[in-house]
Amino acid sequence: MQSSSLSAQFKQRHATPKGLCRPGLFARFRRLALEADANATWGRLDANRLTTRTIELLQYHEPADSLGWHIDPQSAVTMLLMLSADGAYAGAALEHESDGVVHRARPTQHEALFYRSDQEHRVTPFESGTRVALALEWWHEQGVDLKHTFRNHRPFATGPSTCPR
Ligand SMILES: O=C(O)CCC(=O)C(=O)O
Ligand SMILES: [Fe+2]
């Protein structure tokens, strides 16, 4: 992945100051991933083995922080939780390509967007402001060849509104 100030990686479990611990957030994210996988009929995720391969806080501050077309290797499903408000940045839209058609997603603040990790995607050139998003890549502790389950798709959004717009 090309990056400059992008990508601080976090361990899944890390020390939490006493009294600030709020258990259950990871379990909620995990449930959302399973729900998205089921609702989108991808059938990729196994509730018995599912965990994160990476959790990344992505901060886009400058044009070099844009991401070219890529897949998220080894992961099964990627969850992108938008933390920035709509007006906080310009550019940096998330796009997926399917059969030569590009689908643009614009998750609003606190919306989560799910997509199959091997679906080609990119972040269009960042222009201004600050864009912060949390990316969780789900897998089953091993990279799998997902080609046999691959169908082109639009990214799948949870919540009352739909992210692609
Ligand atoms: O920031 C985004 O919208 C997507 C990030 C991404 O594709 C990645 O980190 O691999
Ligand atoms: Fe990605």
UniProtKB/TrEMBL annotation:
Where on the tree of life does the source sit, at the highest rank? Answer: Eukaryota
Q: Which InterPro entries does its entry note?
A: Oxoglu/Fe-dep_dioxygenase_dom
Domain Fe2OG dioxygenase as annotated: residue spans: 46-141
Q: What is this protein called?
A: Fe2OG dioxygenase domain-containing protein
The record lists the lineage as:
Eukaryota, Haptista, Haptophyta, Prymnesiophyceae, Isochrysidales
